[in-house]
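Chapter review: from sequence to fold.
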Amino acid sequence: MPRATATPERIYQLKITLDGSKPPIWRRVEVADTITLAKLHTIVQAAMGWYDSHLHQFSVGAEYYGVPHPEMDVRDERRLKLNQALTAPQQKIRYEYDFGDSWLHDIVLEKVLDPEPGVSYPRCTAGKRACPPEDCGGVWGYAELLETISDPQHPEHEEMREWLDEDFDPEAFDLDEVNAALRTVR
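The token string follows.
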């Protein structure tokens, strides 16, 4: 028998923006305010389109939260709830994914909402642009990659198109695809 999930009391509408992306790459998601930062990590990965193959951390004020590791000075992300990190609209936290490429995300609490009857959370309600490919060098490397693939005369054009996937469209955003990924988050 499937496990019944309790209806959350409050929903946080968050805007997740990839810092330094021009034009901006972002997602608007609605989540229960009681999720942990560990679950928020999984939600960000699904909403943005990352593959969760690199380290990450959250910056909440002067504290860092992530997966406990003896060589990293981070608190356990499983022990902090979102409503402890964000308590009022317009507050934000930072999320960093892949310490080599340093994909920085601003996560802003836009609104506190009542849950809608019959709606499953988390859900994405809007977004813009495709997630950059993993391991392309952060926002600067991604900008160079876009330049390369948009110029058929560039010496690395064919190689980069092949590496990416011929169908890669940096402007693409598929709300249904993002929500399908979010439905797998438990």
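Two observations follow directly from the output. The longest strand covers residues 103-113. DSSP finds five helices and eight strands in the chain.
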